[in-house]
Each structure stands twice: as C-alpha cells, then as structure tokens.
C-alpha cells in the first residue's frame, strides 16, 4: 500500500456558525443527503447540476460532510 491508497477521507460534522474555517485545499465533499458539492471559482461550493450553491459556513452548518476521494 502507498500513502495515496491509505489516505482516509476527512469528515466534518454539522456545527454551529463559524465553527470551522473552510479547508485550504477546497475538497469536493458529499453531504448527508448524498449530494456532491464541488468547489467553484467563485469561492462557493456547487452541486454538479448547478442547482445548489453554498459557501463553506452554510454547508458546514447544515450538513455532515465527507470528503470525496478518488
């Protein structure tokens, strides 16, 4: 096994406002409703279909998040 294959996905549990700053590497995450959120060039996260947009504080406040690893 290499370091790349043993890396675990990070998890952020829903928390209060301002409880956690956005990760510096801006990962793609999946929420507890199984929606995938991808970072956009506008500083917000978007669902692939473009229907939902949120900043990190909104995501982290409302949803449990799991990093999508590939």
Descriptors for this entry?
alpha+beta; six-stranded antiparallel β-sheet; 6 strands
Radius of gyration: 12 Å
User: How many beta-strand segments?
Assistant: 6
Terminal residue distance = 15 Å
Q: Any idea what the shape is?
A: globular
Order of neighbouring strands in the sheet with most strands: 1-6-2-3-4-5
Number of domains: 1
Query: Average pLDDT across residues?
Result: 86
Q: Spans with pLDDT under 50 lasting ≥5 residues?
A: none
- Summarize the amount of helix as a percent range: 10-25%
Structural class designation: alpha+beta
Number of helices: 2
User: What profile does the largest beta sheet have?
Assistant: 6 strands, antiparallel
**What percent of residues are in strands?**
15-25%
Order of helices and strands: HEEEEEHE
Give the SSE layout:
Layout: H1 3-6, E1 11-12, E2 29-31, E3 36-39, E4 45-46, E5 53-54, H2 56-62, E6 65-67
Antiparallel strand pairs: 1-6, 2-3, 2-6, 3-4, 4-5
If you had to describe this structure to a student in words, what would you say it looks like?
There is one protein chain. With 70 residues, this protein is α+β, with helices and mostly antiparallel strands. The protein has one domain (3-67). The chain has two helices and six strands. The protein has helices spanning 3-6, 56-62, and strands at residues 11-12, 29-31, 36-39, 45-46, 53-54, 65-67. The protein has a six-stranded antiparallel β-sheet with strand order 1-6-2-3-4-5. The longest helix has 7 residues, at 56-62. The model has no long low-confidence stretch (mean pLDDT 86).
């Amino acid at each position: 096994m290499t370091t790349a294959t043993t890396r675990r996905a990070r998890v952020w549990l829903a928390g209060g406002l301002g409880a956690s700053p956005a990760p510096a590497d801006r990962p793609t995450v999946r929420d507890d409703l199984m929606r995938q959120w991808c970072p956009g060039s506008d500083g917000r996260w978007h669902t692939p279909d473009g229907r939902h947009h949120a900043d990190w504080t909104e995501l982290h406040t409302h949803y449990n998040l799991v990093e999508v690893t590939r």
